[in-house]
Task: inverse folding
């Protein structure tokens, strides 16, 4: 009887096929996990923003005088911001807003979808001048995953007060860069302020300057007849890059950081206000202030007069940024999950 045996060539072909299938499966699994993380982080950051809007509307401002008095009162065991933020949501269980030290691992609240928050009851820290912040930690799967920064845990900051550019940052939330020396701001005098995050630990994850999980689109009104609608100019940019190309020196990070990171104002975002000091930092659209101003003029739209549509006036619209809503990669699963998360 003739024996059947594998030849070396046949074994090689089989092994190559197995490796290809394994690599493809790993890639698909990785992409699904990344997209799931994007979806949950989009939900988390969107809800933080909505919660901060709710706090502001309820109290006529984000952090009123009564809040400061409450937090400095030693007889009060809970944190004012944490309590009022928690009121905006349907939660999984009761919130824990007992005042804690910075970096506490106490879970403050858990959304119904399992996203948990730490740091909401920690004290406000002063960055510089009138700008204060809380270090917070988002865990997209409560404590059920690997519990690693950059994978299922993401450090963020919520701000109150005004930044060095004089912009009101109350209620704004930004991702952070954990890698040593990368997380910093400049005050109004140009002094470098390093902000070490309480929840970064030994992680080197750069979340503010990496667009893999948290990304932003840059938008601008391009139709004068539809000023409430905007066109996306750039997609899937990191928080840092989107801020720089859209707002220049008037953004959260400021012109000096934008210059150091190599970002300039996008030509389509050129605006008179942004062109004023762009040469100071070398971030001008078009490469110079004059070129920036020329682009700003060409970006203006002929907006019809409300009373007399035949009369138009040149109007400039500023670019703005919005966090990118995750789509694709998971088909119907993604769509149903986004719906469940209330996105």
Result:
């Amino acid at each position: 009887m003739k024996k059947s045996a594998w030849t070396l060539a046949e074994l090689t072909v089989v092994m190559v096929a197995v490796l290809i299938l394994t690599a493809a499966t790993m890639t698909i699994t990785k992409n699904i996990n990344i997209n799931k993380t994007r979806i949950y982080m989009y939900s988390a950051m969107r809800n933080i923003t909505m919660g901060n809007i709710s706090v502001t509307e309820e109290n006529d401002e984000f952090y009123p005088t009564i809040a400061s008095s409450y937090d400095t009162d030693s007889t009060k065991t809970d944190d004012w911001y944490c309590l009022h933020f928690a009121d905006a949501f349907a939660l999984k269980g009761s919130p824990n807003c007992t005042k804690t030290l910075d970096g506490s691992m106490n879970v403050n609240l858990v959304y119904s979808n399992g996203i948990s928050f730490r740091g909401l009851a920690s004290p406000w820290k002063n960055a510089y001048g009138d700008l204060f912040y809380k270090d917070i930690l988002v865990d997209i799967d409560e404590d059920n995953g690997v519990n690693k920064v950059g994978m299922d845990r993401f450090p963020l900051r919520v701000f109150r007060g005004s930044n060095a550019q004089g912009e009101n940052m109350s209620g704004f939330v930004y991702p952070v860069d954990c890698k040593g020396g990368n997380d910093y701001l400049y005050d109004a005098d140009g002094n470098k302020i390093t902000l070490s995050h309480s929840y970064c630990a030994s992680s080197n994850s750069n979340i503010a300057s990496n667009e893999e999980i948290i990304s932003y689109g840059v938008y601008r009104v391009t139709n004068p007849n539809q000023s409430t609608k905007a066109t996306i100019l750039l997609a899937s940019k990191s928080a840092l890059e989107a801020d720089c190309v859209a707002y220049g020196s008037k953004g959260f990070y400021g012109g000096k950081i934008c210059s150091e990171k190599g970002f300039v104002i996008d030509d389509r975002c050129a605006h008179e206000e942004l062109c004023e000091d762009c040469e100071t930092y070398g971030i001008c659209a078009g490469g110079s202030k004059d070129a920036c101003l020329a682009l700003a003029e060409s970006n203006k739209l002929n907006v019809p007069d409300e009373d007399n549509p035949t009369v138009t006036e040149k109007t400039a619209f500023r670019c703005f940024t919005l966090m990118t809503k995750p789509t694709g990669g998971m088909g119907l699963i993604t769509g149903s999950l986004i719906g469940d998360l209330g996105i």
Notes: The longest strand covers residues 131-139. Residues 36 and 334 are 8 Å apart (CA to CA). Confidence is low (pLDDT under 50) at residues 21-32, 329-343.
